């Protein structure tokens, strides 16, 4: 059961990239005080110009993490783990820094559907066991576990969003398509779920307002499709020629490993809990709607 909505007055965002800035804008539009953690003075000036109070620190350097008072704030943790290893050192450093700055009201962590491992072609519910396989997914699950344990210890509600592929303005594979790089044959490209970045930002805010303690939510839209179908839809929307499709063996030879995994992994999520519990309506429930809106902002 979800908690009643909290009357959030302050937000603090760790990881002020595209998604962080979208969430910040939503908070500012509501009249909330918004702070954000960035790594450089230049980034700090950009935040300040947008009305966001900057905190300059580096998650890899615990001694640099001098955080503002976060008592009662809603914290959004969007920063990725460091490269390498199976443990998220950055999350651990951030939690250590929280010891002297007051406890937030709730903390949201943006995780990945990769923690479910090889889930097959059936939509996965939040009750499915986490079985991360890749080092990337293992670091994400380590972060989930660290945050969950910290939340239980300190009585802070920690909400985890397990997200599939994010698309939206600035996130489309336009360069890949323009360069004519091949796609995996449609019949061999497996289905996966997606979410538009604007919908994801709204879901993040709603999750902090309505999510209960230690809750996990799968996040995706209503229309999964293969990565090849996604790239093809983007090409058609742009009015450019679709790159050639190649066999699985050829794709393994010519594609970088991360891109090959992107085409061959199946990441289907069951999003009923998100839709029923978070009081959010998707603006872009289907890919064609989200692509049209994204391209209009490119």
TrEMBL record:
Q: Ranges for the NAD-dependent epimerase/dehydratase domain?
A: 95-220
- Stretches that traverse the bilayer: none
**InterPro entries, per database record:** Epimerase_deHydtase, NAD(P)-bd_dom_sf, NAD(P)-dependent_oxidoreduct
The family database entries (SUPFAM superfamilies) matched by this protein are listed as: NAD(P)-binding Rossmann-fold domains
Q: Can you name this protein?
A: NAD-dependent epimerase/dehydratase family protein
In which organism is this protein found?
Answer: Geoalkalibacter halelectricus
